[in-house]
Q: What sequence folds into this?
């Protein structure tokens, strides 16, 4: 069984194209990295997209996201996205992401995600499944 | 003098490339639209990037951003980003964005921005200028 | 029946986030606009994605793309993507895109697309369908 | 002195957000990877952006780009972008990129770039510098 209780680390090299005319990372890119990091974390836990779909879920859609920016990240920087699941509600969970350059915290963010199921009344909509015990354990929540 | 006290509206047609394998808008794109909407709002207020630079500022960098997702937005949808400044602190202000499809609220978000000045001690860093009275008035804050 | 024989025009306002540290549009964005413009053109011809899927096609995938850059496009510019179908092969067609700022040609590009069908031997692959007479006529090819 | 005569390899993990509603990489992303790969290649040759700027150049802008798509690249794939300089003109050079999944060629592309200098008559424009002997040698051209 996958174990992501200790989180995951996604290294990112800051590309020219990530940066805006001010020479720093254009902020929507940070959310692109958060999303990639969450997929990495879910893979490590053994609940990546293919595994989830095999169980009848549609993925891990978003309820809420946010970020606080501490220091500008620049072209050529090598950073790491450190991600862990910080907690569970009955039908959602919170992933926290910290972007570090060496030991320096550049920014931090979060995503509240749910386990998506087709809505029984309307296939166009999704509903949030109750999070199974097994899913929590994979992220270190007993 | 520019007047953005009533906010701004940015129409967006949801393109194929905005959407992910689930067929809905990949969420970092919403932040791209928020950023474009804030530039539109600042232009309307007469404090677009060129005007700000002419006054010695470097732009309107971000302190914090966030969003809550209510309904999935799909390929082909026509939506509008409704943006207003919701309030000022001494050295920052909050822009709120509501994305509507017709009358339906699909998601809402915010950005806390500041008026960036080169830091006197270190040209690589920025500091948040005190927001001038004139700047507030342009967004309807007396 | 849709008629795109005279092409389509997609207006684009160049956003801050489209631009790179050199202050000009980062070139992959031009391809994003080409793709959006082709979808617009296909919609006008009555063969947008939903219409194609209803006929058992999977869309209009790419065989080849390219662009030549004449003048830099900058933050705040208002440009137009002028698109037409330039010709058909038996199993593909060529869309040409010209990006104009006023009367000035900034860059031009093309996409060779095909009408995608599930491959009979392997659902993971696609094959290029023979282009029906009706499809050609919608783009002004008799 | 940097030596990029043997080219460079940029590994890319295909993220969820790189993919479109058809479940395959949305093609403008390939150009994002080409651009990142060219920066990597230039770094290896010792003519990365910072080095170029220190010599009075503004970077390596594009004259032309293009790609041919052979096989669809999918979410979760691990691919490599293999890049080399294929040849020089007096004022431009051609970078070729091949994207491989294992030994399989998925697509190939190219970029024609030049060594950008501020135009003596108009600081808003760029001109293509004559490529110095030393620059060619770094990419294996004697």
A:
């Amino acid at each position: 069984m996958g174990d992501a209780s200790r989180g995951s680390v996604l290294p990112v090299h800051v590309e020219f194209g990530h940066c805006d005319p001010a020479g720093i990372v254009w902020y929507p890119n940070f959310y692109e990295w958060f999303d990639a990091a969450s997929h990495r974390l879910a893979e490590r836990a053994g609940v990546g997209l293919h595994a989830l779909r095999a169980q009848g879920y549609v993925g891990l859609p978003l309820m809420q996201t946010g970020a606080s920016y501490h220091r500008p990240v620049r072209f050529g920087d090598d950073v790491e996205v450190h991600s862990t699941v910080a907690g569970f509600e009955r039908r959602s969970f919170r992933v926290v992401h910290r972007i570090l350059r060496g030991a320096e915290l550049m920014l931090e963010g979060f995503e509240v995600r749910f386990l998506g199921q087709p809505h029984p009344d309307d296939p166009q909509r999704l509903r949030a499944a109750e999070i199974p015990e097994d899913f929590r354990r994979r992220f270190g929540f007993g």
